[in-house]
Each structure stands twice: as structure tokens, then as C-alpha cells.
Amino acid sequence: MPRLRSLRLLVGAALLAVGVAGDVRWARAGEDGWQLERTTPYPGVEITTMRRARPPLVVHAVRISPDAPVDLRPVLASSAVGDETAGRGHETTSSMCNRANGIVCVNADFNACPGCREPFGGVVRDGRVLRSFNVHHEQLSLGERGLTTERIQWSGALRASYAWQHRDIAATGLSIAPGRAFASSVDIAGLNVRIGTDEVVAYTSEWAPAAPAPAGATHLSLVLSGALVPGSLAVVSAERVNTSPIPANGVVLVASGAGAERLDRFWEEWVTTDADERVLVVETATSQPIETSVGGHPVLLRGGQVLELNQRDPKVHGRHPRTLAGWTAGGDLILLIADGRQPGYSQGITLVEAQRLLLSLGASDGINLDGGGSSTFVETCGSGRCVRNRPSDGHERRVTSALAVVAAAATTATTAPDQLRPPAAVAPVPTSEPAARVPEPAMAPAVAAPPSPPPITGTPPAVVVADLPAVAAAPAEEIVAVASLPSAAAAARAPRAGNPPAPPLVPLEVVALGLWLAAVAFTALAAQRWVRHR
To answer: What average pLDDT is seen over the chain?
Structure first.
């Protein structure tokens, strides 16, 4: 009997070892390695949390397959780019994510100025330019050429054309030749940006309910034939106004200094002409066709090459929390947050380290977004949207804009989503088990879930332990490669257009269970025979 008890203990220990080995979620990858936890909250969307002990660093990344049925949508604080009305200030990333029905969201562009709530660069959503671009600021953009990090230029003008039909010059005494045509224009310096000296700037309802009203400015209210998108739009009505409420389907031109003088001459010509025909249009254009865009700076990688950083740029130096965006040559989009300024938990990274981190994740291109206390990573949770990372302020900072990854079929009351890629016919992964949370104290949801959230389901986390090199003695600008993050298994799981992966004939879990049961039965039979012969 003692031998049988010992044998049972041995078999039980073996079974426990097999069971634990099949269910391990966390393990150390060496004293100075990384711990990785992965979840799949939506088809083609994989979230990975990476933790390193020395130097302490925590990174949260989402990788989006090019065929994932999702859209990438910029979200503006309070749905505006310039309104500073009381109660409509900055907004937290989780609140914006909730309004957009986001699966995953990160903060986006920098503030244009201390205390204001305008993004530093341009904003494009659904092909509409909501704010024109800063010539000194790069843009993370999606358009006909795919994802780019180039600087974008915007131009605009108010144009009038006049024509006179054949006239009896002798009867009228006029010296106008038959069929004569004439055109004039006023250049528009920007869209939904702060007006400078001697400029004409256009404002739409995305700015605020009313346009700015600087002293001595000229205001011209225009109702357009459609939404202001790149191209030429006819002006349905035009009116010189003293106040500046913005028409729902129009713009208000605000002109200052010499710009006001140019607009005044243009308007005087328009209202006093005796032309038989006159046409007024607003023309706008961008340097390249784009559907979605937010600002960022500086560009870190381009075409697989590490770009030289401007050492005089204060953003370059020091280890700080960072928000980064990049993509691989195969089309995977990567959004990530590196926590920082928290000794013992996560110290942050330099931009040189950010370049190497993006490269280690397989990115060929990448750009830096707003960092520091603004860096926030939000994902869906049971009660709405929860902050997954630890913002360095100890709480969410209110910011100007966010980037939301939303289900392609989702809509909001404000706008339709931008399409990240042509959506594949992939249904949400059915599960009765919610996606596992990071084993860190999560911040409470900032807002409740919307009445009709998108169908968000997911799979339990699949943790990969990578055998990574030690980094305790690495120079300050070194970052270790996380070579296992773009794993072959993840690549195999990602659906590809025109070549969807065939499901296995028998689920691997069933095969593993069968083998395990066979091993148990064989061991028990051998033990029984051994005891009988003894």
C-alpha cells in the first residue's frame, strides 16, 4: 500500500504539472526578461502588455491586422477643435473612446498652445478636413497611398466669377465688350485655426458654435451647397455680419488687418457689380488625398530606416511616457503606450529607445504622438472603457484628441467611421468568457457604456514568454528587441485577403485532451500491473 500511495502521488504530481503547463499565463523569462500577456478583444485586433524588471518598463501595444474589420477614427474633445466655452474644455481619452464606441483608443496630437485645447496639427475625418495643417508638424494619415507620416499642406480661396452678355453699347453707353468675363479671389490662410495678423481664416461648426471675433475684424457668413470637403463648393448665400454664429452647412470667414481690407474690397465688388451672371464658390485642396489624419512629431522611422532626431528638440531627450504609432511592411498598424515617470514600476523611454522598440516590433514606419502625462491606453471593459495603463499624473489627463479603433459597422451620433482597411467578412469571435484583464490595479471607468455599444467579444489571453537578452547593464539609449511580439503564431492567426486560413479538422484542444487522457490511462494501467505482480 505505501508503494501504491507513492505511485498515486507521483501520477498526481505528473497530472498537476501537465495541467499547469497547459494553463500558465505568466512566467519569468530570465531575471531581466520580458513578461508578455496577449488578449484578442476583436477579430484582427491583438493587445499585448510587456513588462520588464530592469530597467523597469511597462508597454501596452495593440496590433491591428490589415484585414481586421475595423476603422481608425480621430475623436475630438467635446467634438470641437477650438471651442473654449465653459464646460467644453479638454476631455479624457476614455470619455472620447466611449463616445466613439472604441475597441481600443490612445491619445493623439499635442496641444497647440499652453492652456488652449486645440490640437497642434491638422485633423481629417471621413475625408473632411476639420482643421488645416501646421507646416512644421507631421501627420499620421491614411489615404489612397495607405498610411503616411508626411507633412500635409492645405489651401483655400473664396472665388467670384462675373460675365456680361451681348449688350447694345450705344444704347447703354457702356464700354464692355460682348461676352466679357472677369474673376477675382481672396486666399484663405487656414481652416479652424487661430487667426493671425493680416489673415483670412475659415471657421466651420467643428470649431465651435461661433467663430472668433477679434477687434476690427470683418466677418462674412457663407452657406454652402454641401459639406466642406476638398474641391469646389458653390455658395448658396453670403452675408456680411457683425456677429459670428456659424451656419450649420456653411463657413464664416474672419479677416484681420490687411486680410480684412482684401475681403472688404472683394465683397464691395460682389455686391455692386452689374454683371448679368455671377458665381461665388469656396475652393479648398490638400497636397494629397487623405481620409483620416492626426498630427504628430517627430517621425521616428520611414521605410525601415531610423531617422536622425533633432537634438535641439526637447521632446527627444529624457525617459518619459510615450505614445507611438507605426506600421509594418505587411500593413499591420501598431499603437502603443510606454508608461514612465514611476520609479520601480516603469521609468519610460527616450525617443531613441522608441525607435528601437518600434523596430523590434516589426515596424517599418513610425511617429511620436503626445506623451508625458497625456499617454493613455484605453480598452473595452465590462462597464464601458477602462484605462489599461498607468498615466504618470496618477489619473487621466484631459487632452485635445484621441485615436479610436472602432468596429467597421459601428456608427455614432456625430460622424461615420473612417475605414482603416477594406473590411474582411470576419464575424466577432464568440465566447462566454470576457477577455482577461491585466493583473494590475485598473483605474475605474471614467464613463458609463453608451446605450448601444458595438459587439465586443474576445478570447482569453495567450501569454508568450520570450527568452530576451538582459538589459540591466544596457546604456541609457539601448532598448532590447521584443522579437516574439510579432510571432509566427500571431501571423498565422491573422486573416489575409483572398487566402483565409482553413480551420483545423480537429481542434488542437481536443487532440491535446485526448493525448493527455491516453497517457493517464496508460500510466494507471502500468501501475496496476506493477502492483499486482509485486
So the answer is: 78
CB 302 within 8 A of CB 140: no
Angle between helix axes 2-23 and 508-533 (nearest 10 degrees) is 170
Contact 50, 35 (CB under 8 A): yes
CA angle (194 as vertex; 416, 266 as ends), nearest 5: 95
- Mapping DSSP onto H, E and C, the string for 461-518 reads CCCCCCCCCCCCCCCCCCCCCCCCCCCHHHHHHCCCCCCCCCCCCCCHHHHHHHHHHH
Check if the beta carbon of residue 199 is closer than 8 Å to that of residue 259: yes
Three cell numbers at 457?
467579444
C-alpha cell at 410: 459601428
Q: Are 154 and 290 in contact (CB under 8 A)?
A: no
- Would you state the pLDDT for residue 509? 54
| pLDDT tens-digit map of 167-200 | 555 555 555 566 678 899 999 999 999 999 999 9
Confidence class for position 131, pLDDT limits 50, 70, 90: very high
Grid cell of 216 as nine digits: 476690427
For 414-449, give one letter per residue: b (16+ CB within 10 A) or e: ebebbbbbebbebeeeeeeeebbebeeeebebbbeb
C-alpha cell at position 349: 523611454
pTM (2 d.p.): 0.73
> Is the CB of residue 78 less than 8 Å from the CB of residue 89?
yes
C-beta pairs of 83-87 under 8 Å, 24+ apart in sequence? 83/207, 83/208, 83/209, 84/116, 84/117, 84/208, 85/208, 85/209
Alpha carbons 334 and 48: distance in angstroms, whole number: 11
CA 478, CA 503: separation in Å to the nearest integer?
41
